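Work through what follows:
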Amino acid sequence: MTLSFLAWAKFFLCVSVIGLAGFRLVRYGDAIAALTGMSRNWVGMILIATVTSLPELVTGLSAVTLVAAPDIAVGDALGSCVFNLAIFALVDLLYRDESVYARASPTHVLSAAFGVLLLGGTGLAILLSAGEVIPVFGHVSAASGVLLMLYLFAMRTIYRLEQRQGIDPAAELTGMSLGRALTGYGIAASAIVAAGIWLPFVGVELAQTMGWTNSFVGTLFIAFATSVPEIATTLGALRIGAIDMALGNLLGSNLFDVLILVLDDLVYRPGPIFRDVAPVHAATAIFACVMSGAIIVALVVRPTTRVLRTMSWASLSLVALYLINAAVQFRHGQ
């Protein structure tokens, strides 16, 4: 067997483990939420989004502590953001009743807007850190503190909006006790942690055997692998008609992915992580901002027509932006 074949085999094994465990994790997470009376919107935004972002968290932490590959960590987090936003197009394509933007709750505008702020701040942190403009406290960038406060403010604001609107709790699930749900949740989470620790090693091996850059591999391939739980969750929610849960999961995952970068910066000992990564990552953050802006416009305008009976103009723009970002990372990554 060739080295490249073995590297690809390891990569797809990681994808399979994360995908299967992610699907089970979402099922048990939704059961826990239902049995404790949480709202479905809050489930998508916080509980499911957090647990489906667990691969990004584990991959990022292991990339900066075990592999010393900050480009893999940052590329994974930001690449997952653009990938999550591109999943909107998949939802729009598969949901045939009407445009998903016309069906979705307008409250998602707030989540997408906070995503623009957090991702824009991340892009600025990468660009300004290259010139050592941002102050550093110990080995941690001051930008991480700003992003953390903005994330906490976003969660508080979204929660208060949920409370004011009086969202009904999720329907109670039958045939599963809370203890069983918690046990299954823990097992699935452990499988994702194990695959997430291994994934950055596979990413570095894949980059070396294929002659690709760490930033390109992290932004596309590692980001795809760690976004598999979001795909499984979205398709599962779409199957039962829970559109708001699916979209809330995607937008909530993006907010949490920026928080992951803050945690990566805390454990990355050589210095601020924003300073030691390729500046081209800022392009990914900017593309994610533009994609979030397109979603905000679509949620406000609520398009009802489809281009060639496939998806709305907003979804087509998301696909185009994702492909352009992939090309930029391939040509200019380090």
